[in-house]
Design brief:
The chain is of the alpha/beta class. The protein has 14 helices and 14 strands. The strands form three sheets. It has an eight-stranded mixed β-sheet with strand order 2-9-8-7-6-3-4-5, sandwiched between helices. Strand 4 and strand 5 form a beta hairpin. The protein is globular and about 65 Å long. The termini are far apart. The structure holds pyridoxal-5'-phosphate. Pyridoxal-5'-phosphate binds next to helix 5. The site of pyridoxal-5'-phosphate has 13 residues, from helix 5.
Length: 397
């Protein structure tokens, strides 16, 4: 008897029937390249079963490393030397491996605020103490980075600064180049290791925009960039990459975990290498950018039409998110209760701040446009507008 591979408990989250949940920042299942992946699986297992199903090279399979080395020029402006690339089991796993290498429980870690809430959860799991680096509309400020660095005990050997500089989760916006250079200068002076989570960098919706890893030569700080196939192929594959100093690649590629288990997600990495090397790859990426930018336009258009007098937000040039700010002194958690009553949801802003400054997120809400098709996005905003104009709700309209 063949067992079913679907059903409860199969995926991380399940859709709540009848609810438009604008919370999760997941890629759209309708955009997974499942047919192309099926072909890649078949080809890899036909042509190279011995290599694909073995323990993989510790630093990741050479075909994927080589492909990344040249393709990353489209994302970061110049090719990346293969000695600087480590294949990972996704950006989350990469962050964890960096923590295992550079931190000890109780260490301080600097973190852009607001930031990706589940990176905060990861740092908490490692028992790290998060020191927030405050942001203005252009991202974390160099002054705040200076101040935060002063809070790190002098005896601590390594200082990491976690940031999502391109199409930020949750801010939707990117750190401009001059601001990034200033942050690199502070990092270099203070010996801070910048960990930039670049999972949204390939999803830029304007043509010809690149996001250099090093802003300029004189601000040559230590920078590690984390990339992922979760947002541009499919998250269940658990394949990503890290661009970092060759010494870090060597250390992680030769630690006990790598020597025992080989490269992570090896078979999936071989399949991804075949997919990315196929003639359809550029078209796939173009399709993703077109679809997601249309969804962004739908969500932003609906927000402008229905909630423009109540909320404001920054322009979104890529990624998956709109970071709403209530114009009045309204609490996004209280507003969420009303929203849930009308079967629509989102993540309140306080989740994206370290606990010590969670109040700063009070007036914010993160809405994702990646997961739902256009009609659901319109319906979600219409429900929000309805929820927030109900008599008794503390809204000034
Ligand atoms: C900023 C950021 N980093 C990392 C991830 C997770 O990446 P991965 O699936 O590669 O672990 C996400 C997913 O939402 C994200 O938004």
């Amino acid at each position: 008897m063949t067992r079913s591979v679907t059903g409860p408990g199969t995926t991380q989250i399940a859709d709540r029937p009848g609810v438009v949940d604008l919370g999760p920042g997941h890629s759209s299942p309708s955009l997974y390249p499942s047919r192309e992946l099926a072909r890649a699986v078949e080809e890899v297992l036909r042509d190279a079963p011995g290599e694909a199903l073995a323990y993989g090279a510790n630093r990741g399979p050479a075909p994927l490393v080589e492909w990344l080395s040249s393709w990353l020029a489209n994302v970061h402006g110049s090719p990346v030397d293969p000695s600087r690339i480590l294949v990972t089991a996704g950006a989350s796993a990469a962050l964890d491996r960096l923590c295992s290498l550079f931190t000890r429980p109780g260490d301080a870690v600097l973190c852009e605020a607001p930031t990706y809430h589940l990176a905060l959860a990861q740092l908490a799991s490692r028992r790290l103490h998060v020191v927030p680096v405050a942001s203005d509309a252009r991202g974390p400020t160099p002054d705040a980075l200076e101040r935060a660095a002063r809070e790190v005990p002098a005896a601590q050997e390594h200082v990491l600064f976690y940031t999502v500089p391109v199409h930020s989760n949750p801010r939707g916006a990117s750190i401009p180049r001059d601001r990034w250079s200033s942050l690199c200068t502070v990092a270099k002076e203070r010996g801070i290791h910048m960990v930039r989570d670049d999972v949204y960098a390939p999803l830029t919706y304007a043509e010809g925009v690149v996001h250099p890893i090093r802003a300029d030569a004189d601000a040559d700080a230590t920078v590690t960039s984390l990339g992922s196939f979760s947002k541009i192929v499919a998250p269940g594959l658990r394949v990503g990459w890290m661009i970092t100093d060759p010494e870090v690649v060597d250390r992680l590629g030769n630690d006990g975990l790598a020597r025992s288990g080989g490269g992570p997600s090896h078979t999936a990495a071989m399949i991804v290498a075949r997919l990315c090397g196929s003639s359809g790859w550029d078209g796939h990426l173009r399709r993703l950018r077109r679809e997601y930018s249309e969804r962004r336009d739908v969500l932003v258009g609906a927000l402008e039409a229905e909630l423009g007098d109540l909320c404001e937000w920054q322009p979104v040039e890529g990624g998956f998110f709109v970071w709403l700010r209530f114009r009045h002194d309204l609490d996004a958690k209280t507003m969420l209760r009303e929203a849930e009553r009308h079967r629509v949801s989102y993540i309140p802003g306080s989740e994206f701040f370290p606990a010590s400054v969670a109040g700063e997120g009070r007036r914010y809400a993160r809405l994702s446009f990646s997961y739902h098709p256009a009609d659901k996005l319109r319906e979600g905003v219409s429900r929000l507008a309805h929820a927030w104009s109900t008599p008794g709700v503390p809204v000034y309209r």
